[in-house]
Each structure stands twice: as C-alpha cells, then as structure tokens.
Amino acid sequence: MDIDALRSEMPFLNRCLYFNTGGIAPSTSVVTDTLINYFTDVRRQGPPLIMDSVANSERMADARQRIAALLRVDEDDLCLTRGVSDGITLVLNGFDWEEGDEMIITDEEHPAVQMPADRLVAACGVTLKRLALSDNPEAMLQRLRKLLTPRTRLLTLSHVTTDTGTRLPAEEICQMAHAHEIPVMLDGAQALGQFPVDIPALDADFYSFLNYKWLFGPYSTGGLYIKKIWQERLKLVATGRSVRRVNPSSYTYPSPGGAKQFETGALSQSLYYATAAAIDYIQAIGISAIEDRTRQLTADLRTALKAIPGLSIESPETAETSTGIVTFTVKGIDGRDLNAGLRARNVVGRAALMKFSGVRISVAFFNTEEELDVLVRAITEIVGRDGA
C-alpha cells in the first residue's frame, strides 16, 4: 500500500491531522472529479434525465449494481437512501407495532436509531431493551439471550457502535434471533469500509448503511438492504414520491418492485455515481488490506495511550470486537475540553459523549505512524496542562 500516493489523492490532509473518518471521510480526487464532470456535462448538454433518459437510467443502474456488489446482495434487494437514518426510520415505521411489543437496541446507539426508537415508545407503547456492550462476544450473546421474550418484535443494533467502535458478533446475533423468529436490522454506518461485509453470510433481515465515512463516498448517500421475504410484509409509509399502494389515483407511478419500491422522493444521481467511484477506489486498495493496516495502527496507538497518566481506553482491544475507532477518557477532563485542545493543535477528532465524556479517534488507512506520534504528544500536553 503506497500511503504517500493515496494521501496525494486527498490534499485536505495537508491542512491538519485528520482522525474523524468515522464522522465524514476526506474526499478523494476520484469522487470530486466524478461530481465535477457530472455537472460540467449538465451545463454543456442539459439535464441527463431529459436529454438522454436511456443513458441516464443505464448509468444509475450500473451505480446501483456496484453498490450492491460490495454488499454481495442482489441489486433488487437494495433501496437507495440518503443515509442510515432514512433506512432505519423506514423499517421502524414499516412494522405494525402494538403496545407491549419489545425492541432491543444496544446501550450505545447513535440518534439515528435512538430517536425513531423513542418515537415508537411514545407513540405505540413499545418497550425498549438495551443490550450492554462488552469486549467479549460470548458475553454479549449471553446478555442478548436473556433479553429475548415472546414480545420481542425486532432487534435494531449497530454492526459497529459509534462511540467506542465495538464490533458486534452480528452473524451469531442473527442466528440467535432467527431461532426465535425475530428479525434483525443492523446499522452499518461504522462497518462498511472498515472490514469486508457479506450481508447474505450475516443473514440480516435489514442492513442500513451510509457511504461517506469509511467508504469515502460523498455526503450524503446511503442504502438499505431488505431481505426478499420482507419486501411485501414491510409497510410503506408515504413520504414524497412513493410507489406502492399509496399513489393518488390521478397521478401514479409504475412500481419498480423489489426493494426499489421503498425509494421515495428524488435521489441526487450524481452522488450515487460518485459513490460507485469511491467503492472502486476502496476495492482497488483492498478492504482486507485496509483492515490489516488499521489494526496495526490502532494497536500502536493503544500502547502509546496507555502510558499517559489518568487516561483510560474505552474501546475494546480484542481482535473480534475492535475496529479503527479508539476512544479514551481522561480523569478530571471533560471530553469537549479534550477535543477542543486537540483542535487548537490542528488535530481533528470528535468528542464522545454518549456513555462517558471522552474523545473518539478514528484511525484510517491514510493515517501515518508519524501522525499518531503527534497525536499522542498533543494528548500528553493537554493532560499535563489540565491535570489528571
């Protein structure tokens, strides 16, 4: 992996030390060039949808196929969205909930899950149960087993959690849930691009994801995989231009069938063309190679952080549960102050405030050993200045 060559495709990295790919990734040349070329063509040749609808449809179909291929799913099972929130809200709204029904989430869910889940509690009387995270996959499975009851209707869990970067044993979770005839939805926001994801192997019923973090796609695009058995069972709540059983008789659209029927409103096609280009970029590097490099970098970072007095690493360290996210707290220092101190030193991370007050560092393949050294020195300075 030629890190210098890869970094040259992201000139933004010359401005700062960037450790927030888990928030929004830097844009690569291939992504920005795709967007620029698209709008240049629009200016010169007119709107593609109007001037050459056949070519336009073929290009969009190709982008969809390349996104689906990354997930190893059939393109007919893929609904394009604007991000994880779209997909999760679509699924949660698509169930006929009854008072007393139960849904299980983790104790570290992003608002993309937490907010629509809270709405179900308030509007439908759904009971939320929280799976406590652990760095031990078997411990998580044992805890989940105790949470399941005959009233459990759905598991909505992060494949990789947002603050600590904990990787859940997703395949085993799906097996356990399906043994009780309970469907599973996974939030893949922090998973795709960090390691290979094979949705059929996981056997998730729904997989909601976005493309602008570890896949290095443009903001804001995403998708939702819907298993075939759910494509007619899931209720479609009309928002915008819906296509199944909700069309006014005076103005209808033909249903495309499959998961596409859940796409509502107009999609910004240029963003999905750029997403396809980003996927090609990541696959050319090799997702397994990215995972290996990130694993080594994060191991080195954890070792260095442990030498700082008063600092505690909140992210798991075991190979089965760890990812490129390393989150830490420092005794006596608020996470927002820690993060502000890093930004003052031109180091970009993110405050972690869900379960504790700390800082989340997202280590990506483009980060270097030298950058990690600067990061650790910066943290050491802040701790030494503010006390521990």
Question: What does this entry look like structurally?
Answer:
This protein has 388 residues and is α/β, with parallel strands linked by helices. The protein has two domains: 33-282, Aspartate Aminotransferase, domain 2 (3-Layer(aba) Sandwich), CATH 3.40.640; 286-386, Aspartate Aminotransferase, domain 1, CATH 3.90.1150.10. The protein is 41% helix and 14% strand. The chain contains 13 helices and 13 strands. The protein has helices spanning 3-8, 29-45, 48-51, 53-71, 84-93, 111-124, 137-147, 170-179, 199-202, 269-285, 287-305, 335-344, 369-386; strands at residues 17-18, 78-81, 102-106, 127-131, 152-158, 184-187, 206-210, 222-226, 311-313, 325-330, 347-348, 350-352, 358-362. It has a seven-stranded mixed beta sheet with strand order 2-8-7-6-5-3-4, with helices on both faces. A four-stranded antiparallel beta sheet has the order 9-10-13-12, covered by helices on one side. Strand 3, helix 6 (111-124) and strand 4 (127-131) form a beta-alpha-beta unit. The longest helix is centred in the first third of the chain and has 19 residues, at 53-71. It is globular and about 60 Å long. The two termini are 39 Å apart. Residues 239-251 have low confidence and may be disordered.
Oligomer: single chain
CATH superfamily of the largest domain, by name, is Type I PLP-dependent aspartate aminotransferase-like (Major domain)
User: Strand-and-helix sequence, N→C?
Assistant: HEHHHEHEHEHEHEHEEHHEEHEEEH
Helix share, percent: 40-55%
- The total beta strand count reads 13
Q: What is the level 1 CATH name of the largest domain? A: Alpha Beta
CA(first)-CA(last) distance: 39 Å
Overall spatial form: globular
Structural class of the helix and strand makeup? alpha/beta
Largest sheet: 7 strands, mixed
Radius of gyration: 22 Å
Corresponding CATH architecture of the largest domain:
3-Layer(aba) Sandwich
Number of domains: 2
Query: How big a fraction of the residues is strand?
Result: 5-15%
Specify the number of helices: 13
Mean pLDDT: 93
Biggest β-sheet: strands ordered side by side in the sheet: 2-8-7-6-5-3-4
Low-confidence regions: 239-251
CATH topology of the largest domain: Aspartate Aminotransferase, domain 2
